[in-house]
Specification:
4-stranded mixed beta sheet; globular; about 70 residues; about 25% strand; alpha+beta
Length: about 70
């Protein structure tokens, strides 16, 4: 992974944009949800609030899911 943006889709959770340097222009409604360090940190099993599935730094809607919504 070279970039520090870990972008996931709100609808399909694709990881195609994991490790990018800039947000692709064809993604919509992208928001930053946590830092790269927080997204990359190991999850402590004793932490009941932490989730293994929260690997992303940003969430948005990918081009494929935008097409499906139309």
């Amino acid at each position: 992974m070279t970039g520090q943006i870990r972008l996931a889709c709100r609808n399909c959770d694709t990881d195609i944009c994991d490790g990018i340097n800039e947000i692709p222009s064809d993604w919509k409604e992208v928001t930053e949800v946590q830092s790269f360090d927080a997204a990359s940190a190991p999850v402590d099993p004793a932490d009941k609030k932490a989730r293994l599935t929260d690997w992303f730094t940003h969430l948005g809607i990918c081009p494929d899911c935008q097409k499906e919504a139309k």
